[in-house]
User: Fold these one by one.
Assistant:
Number 1:
Amino acid sequence: MKKLMTIFLMGTTLFAANAQTNSNNPLLKKWTGPYGGVPAFNEYKVSDFKPAIQFAIQEKLNEVDVIANNPKAATFDNTIAALERSGKTMSRIYTVYGIYGSTLSTPEFDAVETEMSPKLSAFNDKVLQNKKLFTRIEALYNSKESKKLTSEQQRLIWLYYTDFVREGAKLNEKDKEKVAKINQELASLFTKFSQNLLAEEHNQYVALKTESDFDGLPAEVKNAAIAEAKSRKLDVMGCVANTRSSIEPFLTFSTRRELREKAFDIFVKRGDNGNANDNNSTLVTILQLRTQKAKLLGFPTFADWSLSNKMAKDPKKTLDLMLSVWEPAVEKVHLDVAEMQKIVDAEGGKFKIQPWDYRYYAEKVRKAKYDLDQNEVKPYLQLENLREGMFWVAGELFNLNFKQITNVPVYHPDVRVWEVSNKITGKVIGLWYFDPYARAGKRSGAWMNAYRDQQKMDGEVLTIVSNNCNFIKGAANEPVLISWEDATTLFHEFGHALHGLCSNVTYPSLSGTNVARDYVEFPSQLLEHWLATPEVLNKFALHYKTNQPLPQSLVDRIEKASNFGEGFSTVETISSSLIDMKLHLATETIDPHKFEKETLDALHMPSEIVMRHRIPQFGHIFSGDGYAAGYYSYLWADVINADAWEAFTEGKGPYDKEVAKRLYDDIFSVGNTIDQEKAYENFRGRAPKSDALMRARNFPIKDKK
């Protein structure tokens, strides 16, 4: 005991010395200023991260040691609540670290990330595999006294217990070491995969050298390509960046088939070019390590381990759901392709529709069949107006008010911030940061972040959330016009933000979007529906030149064409979901190209479509464990979403106050304080029915015997 105390005191002395050394490191300072403190983005430097992370790791480990070695019997307050209060420095640093990694990546930061990722993983394992700490958590989990606690406190004990067990808390010391070693290796590989993908996206482009190379492109797409070439200082007229927000409009509108093929080629071959950024060997190793980890933890496959804390629980359930939607979606694609091929043949084209033709000819079919041209709609979809439309929807559903502020630092000039309050009481509930534009060092796609979780443990703590997109800036002083698909994505990500902003719970680990992965997409997918409501279109879909709203005739045509392309989007997404699940059900070493081809062939994948994320670029599942064996979550959540939307359509419509109140009370405000199945049943009065999804996608519903 004396020797242990000496070692602990030595560690404390060293920690104190480090604290003094790091006293001027801005990352180690508490957030100050308004709203309970905000990140000091104007003070941080990349060189601050390594010493700050090292300090915060030791601080958290010291705090955990105090909790684990408490001589008093475990109670909720001295163990679970104490853990909730620990690691605040690390939480702040990790938030900023994540922002730099996803939006401000540079070679200097990449080097820090490469070094620190395995160290952060090792730190996490030291906490989760702390035997004394787990003994206290387990005692509370099994205690009859705990049944007297509030339901939220019981839920938090359950969460800690299951998280610790899933990460090996019950293993022997030798196997714990093996799991920890695997986790560190995986952390390094996740970082490598992400950095390779980012390099491919930013180093590759399609040059547009002559005026004819712009043929077919709408003005805003052409202007964006010109601006992109200027920003890269290229000696060409324009270029198409290797990011989805640039590639997809080009594939939709360019009349230059050979250039469409080039653009398609660089996009689908990201991470698969046999160069220094090739991801194939990296992902194979990731899969091997995941299989080893799952078996050490007592699961036959990584998929079984991954789903053990999800709503679905069983991989077979997810496969059954995906395959039930797959067949009607494929049938729909064949019908759509037949119509496209007729146009090709009528134009004298001597080719069969290829993946780089799909969007181009789908747009022609849309125009011919529904008299709907995306370019006719796009002038009404101004980014800033739609943002205001989202705010209005949040006000109608949840009584939220948004006020732009300028008294907090931001990490890039593109970022703006809004104060969010309850418009009835005036009470401020959080901040919303908006980072809308693509740039070098920012990963592609769109996402939501929680900088700080809402909680009420020791007084009200306001949440801070962000939405991040990759819209392309056009010419100076011109409004940014976006596609209907991009507008849907904008509302989707805002749904995640509202899930965080509406949170009203006590403990941070149960706050906001900290729910099961196959449930977290439900609130965001649900919010997409409000984009197409007449109230939003009439108020906020205003022509950028005339300021006139979308004419009713155009609204009607949008409604008629609403299910057009569902076959394509469903096949594109579910093929990725099926590949993901089958990859993580496999236990043998795979060849990525062979596995992808054989699996898709067995599914009779239409040759005119590729997966939304091919294996070597599948960042969702290889940049971390979050969506690994979990990409099915989008479809799983869409079943819930479609069923929930019918609660509004069966009621008084999208702005039914009574249904909206239930949505807030039972879904958006409760976080993970209640089992998600029960939460949904509280909202709907029953479990979700998958028939709603088939109706939403206009797919046939099979009779259930």
Number 2:
Amino acid sequence: MALVKAIRRFTVRTVLPEPIRPLARLATNLRWSWHRPTRELFASLNPALWEASQHDPIALLGSISREQLQDLANNGDVVDRVQHAAADLDRYLSEPRWYQGLGEDAPACIAYFSPEFGITEVLPQYSGGLGILAGDHLKAASDLGVPLIGVGLLYQAGYFKQSLSRDAWQQETYPVLDPDGLPLTLLRHPARDGVPGKPVQISLPLPNGRELHAHVWRADVGRVPLLLLDSNVPSNDEAARGITDRLYGGGGDHRLQQELLLGMGGVKALRVYQEITGTPAPEVFHTNEGHAGFLGIERIQEAMSDPNQPLSWDEALAAGRASTVFTTHTPVPAGIDRFETVQIKHFFEAGLAPAVPTDRILELGRENYDGGNPSVFNMAVMGLRLAQRANGVAKLHGVVSREMFAGLWPGFDHSEIPITSVTNGVHVPTWVDPRISSLARNQFGAEAEALGRWDLAYNVSDEDVWALRRELRAQLIEDVRRRLRASWKKRGAADAELAWTDSVLDPDVLTIGFARRVPTYKRLTLMLRDPARLKALLLDPKHPIQLVIAGKSHPADDAGKKMIQDLVRFTDDPEVRHRIVFLPNYDIAMARTLFPGCDVWLNNPLRPLEACGTSGMKAAINGSLNLSVLDGWWDEMYDGENGWAIPTANNNSSSEERDDIEASALYELLETQVAPRFYGTTVAQGAGAAGPSESSRESVPTHWVSMIKHTLAHLGPAVSAERMLHDYVNNLYCPAAVSGRRAVAESFKEAKELAAWTSKVRSAWPEVVVEHVDSVGVSEEPQVGDTLQVNAYVALNNLTPDDVSVEVAFGRAEESDELEDIVVAELDSVEDLGGGRHLFHGSLVINRSGSFGYTVRVFPKHSALASKAELGLIANA
């Protein structure tokens, strides 16, 4: 054993011979992580070292000796392939793509802030769905030519690595990352007189006279630069160096300082990056979840401290909101970061934003609404107040978000709350298995593959589809056996005890996958609700199933860890351990075989607590069928032929009753529908739960294969991240850019006008009253098609009819007088009655039989508002 230890460890980058020098650029641009030809090039340089490096090009190049590198440089075929790959990358980075065809109205630059980015396992800066989504967002933006800049933090240990103790308790380790060994470059000021420029350093003041400094690292995600701030710099004191120590690792002040650095420091980093590179200033700022919300405060600080034209608070707020998009990812209040108001005050009084009144900042995050806690600073509430446009990440999640944040818009119907939705998508080149791509390319040509012709799945023979599914299943099983053996060795087992791992799982058995984070609401152990029934399913002689399960629980979540322990103890049972496995340390590398290898993807959260749940999308693009509660994306995309919907219990059931009901429904589906269909059998009338009493079996289960083809053809384009980026660009980014440009044009003329108008309206609104409404034109026996004339007498006091929109809302009237299936029509101002009173008139056509009702409402109206509910002001009749 070596007794001499290094006092410092660092990575030395390889110097490549000139003929193969482009390999360095190919290795540092993360396009290789989803570009198959580039990965194949690296693998061919030294297949053994490629495997040993865990498919990390930088580690690979660092492992090849100088002599071997020179041999490669002397190999004409290798040099040609390297030059071809470099030229292909140059074309990819420079040629016009979809976005370049949108014209001048499209924003010249978009800043995308997120606390985590899951791009590749060699850059472990992600914990789960939020980070993977952010990584897919950048990749799809690159492929489409969207001029995005990502902004995040560089965590010294990333998220934790998970292992299991002998008694199946989750254990965490935090290997420290060396940025020099990652696909990153340190952002530096320009060189002068041949002397390299100094590293860029961002600084924020902290309480008690301290400062927080950060370097900025750049990752190239295809065409998209990603800026990552790193507080582990010599100029910081020990506490400040640890602020970016790990992802979601701390609480209280530690978490708050991470989010201040991400938001405020991130804007500062962007400004320096713009100056160094000449990149256009972002016209849109996208806040991916509330963690990055302080970016809005930094932008207000910039506007209020501009020496040439300082804006007031209201003006700066109006200008910043116009060009900001906020995406919320959580369907539960407990998932939102909340700080004590005194904490926020303590940090901002240290001079973080000296031009901005601290009390105004506190009001942005204050829960000053019914059911809120006014002493708490809510990051999502601040994010919504700082953004003119907001969205959830699935249609159902949009509904849930509008209900969850309804307190910010009192008096409005939930459907009118200005939070829309953009359903998440997944980056297909990253997540689709190469075998599926190869099949498409071989059968239909590279052009069809490039165009994403998912409908061509129908043209593949059933036999080819079924054979490919078995091949993918076998690939997964090989990976499972290797990982399971390694896991047991970490749990303390000897090699002599582990021969059984060589025969775990069967390539001809229905394989079900379940992998995600392990908070309690995702119900990892719902499948264990009736252990005997699960065991019967696993060991069924005619229709057996097998399960591959993975997931991490947050280090502070003992309830989640207990779920993992309960599940692993079940999988340890020698009777079933060949049919059910738990794999620790779920990450991108594991996912690459897990999604394609599973026949069915299981998801059973408590509805409606799954915001989107993109793991099922990744399974679908690989030909897996979903078996899921109707939550998240599945609620809108399940069609009866792409999988199965697990019925849900009534919301008024107790948690125990709900779990019992939904677990029973899950078992029933597996026993009577999923397994028989996979095995190509027809269950005879009256078959029991343990399996069919009589059945006929197909060599290729045609109904199952037809569901696979249907899934690929219909879900493939619907769940792609390219579709998601199209939605963001068309529905949020372009409108935000237009609003932002208008707000700042002519020395912020519109922002100033909007701020003054908003102040006037807020002051006058308490006196706005719908005094009286009358109607004429309906007979004693109203009929469908009758026209109703509506007159509304409204006291506007200091406002004018141009400041408001008066509308009649009508629809089906319930017994409680609440309106359903509402239609609205705007009323016209027809007479000034004096004394601030006005008559508004309009007509509506009775469009339904049965109970009918209407009401009149008044909203503020201004051309710079994105919705009638934006200011949260309404006057009802």
Number 3:
Amino acid sequence: MTTTNEYTASTKTGRLANFVDTRVGASTIVKEFGRKVFPDHWSFMFGEVALYTFVLLLLSGTFLTFFFDPSMTHITYEGSYVPLKGIGMSAAMASTLDISFDVRGGMFMRQVHHWSALLFVASLSVHMLRVFFTGAFRRPRELNWVVGGVLLIMGLAAGFTGYSLPDDLLSGNGLRIIDGVMKALPVVGTYLSMFFFGGEFPGVHVIPRLYSLHIMIVPAVIILLLVVHLFMVVTHKHTQYPGPGRTNDNVVGFPVGPVYAAKAGGFFFIVFGIVAFISGIFQINPIWNYGPYDPSPVSAGTQPDWYIGFVDGALRLMPGVLGDFSFVWNIPFPWGDNSLVLSVLLPALVPAGALFAVMFAWPWIERWVTKDNREHHLLDRPRNAPFRTAMGAAGVVFYCVMWAAASSDLIATHFHVALNDVTYWLRVLFFVGPLVAFWLTRRICLSLQRKDREIVLHGREAGIIQMSPEGGFSEKHEEVDVYKRYVLTNFNDNQYIPAQPDAAGHISRKEKRRAKISKFFFEDRVAPVTPSELEAAKAAHGHHEVEGEKQDSIEK
């Protein structure tokens, strides 16, 4: 692949013109950054939203550090919020209340920080989903996909460490769950908990330690990952959607300077304005309603922020026993028995671990199954990769069921149903939901592909009814233009690849497994329209569609 960047201006009629070829060598990539070209598509903005909300997090967080006291020293609150006056609490909780009620603009900055955190993880998640569904993770961007996954994990870590800092009842219960997960580990669990909390839960050092993680270590890692991510984007070029004039060897879009930079700058202020509006209008995390943390009560109707809620939901779905089978195992050691509490460890670690493991490994799984080692700079339409899209939908449903389970008590109270019934149904959906989502999404994608074939071969419905001389009625179809036809027909047609023998003529077990998975991936497929099929359809006036097996493609 060359390092050619192409700036293409598109006229109102859709014609492509004015290709400007700028060759940029790898050694001059920083010097020539202003001449780099980026494609223009609305779905690419989610990555920008993540970047801009992270900038807002840094700015608002810097303001908050001037007033927040990360100490668990017990004091008596004497601030402006009258309902809590005279109540004992930690200095962290008291300083958070002071920020909210006594510092000018403090409440607004707290809410900007919290809403920015929610939008940062949300936009990062949607950006990752866009990359997955369009196949932007394929070679040479596999490592960048891994960097994005680690960024997502760091975003979760930043959210959790910041969410726990006020030391209110809600965040304290979240830390209590972490304490339970640690203590569920045999032998080392108690020692880990004592070290993390600075003594028996809730300890005296957990807030200062979380504060150090939240304002120094986690942001530093996120900034490093962002730099690596953006460097890889510049080095590998930005992906683009297929279309006339767009190939694996060019980029059609706008140069960074001055066009893209100006648009990006304006978009930052739009994001900032929206976050400021939400923060000024909609209340979030009212810690004064929860009160200071006390280990004795557990409040009902509470759940963590949405991006951490799936872990809480998995814990709620896990039963303690199944019939006579207990998930608590007592393991004998020379010094006595230690308990392995699988009813806590399994839901806390396995679902999230499985989700991220499949996500990280997927680029190499897909490459292995398809035997496709080519570089890909053109994106797929999700419908043209039915198996991948179906797997993504199954993963989303898997996550959302756990997310919903974190609010099982609120679902029960708001809809006036039994909590046990809600739990039972969510347990069924935990296993059945991803399977149904996979099957349904795959069938929808295949149906959309067949619809695309019909549009290419027969044209689109014009909404005009014609009457034949014999008195019959039919709808008029209009042939799609060459640009639309290009998008509908120019895509990778992945097929089932049988097991291939090696140089010695033997077929290994690994290759047989790959062939079985390939068959599962691509046995159901719809081939793109070929030139011969298009000519046959034109000759027959679009009345005979044949699903051919020839793999030649329609050129623009």
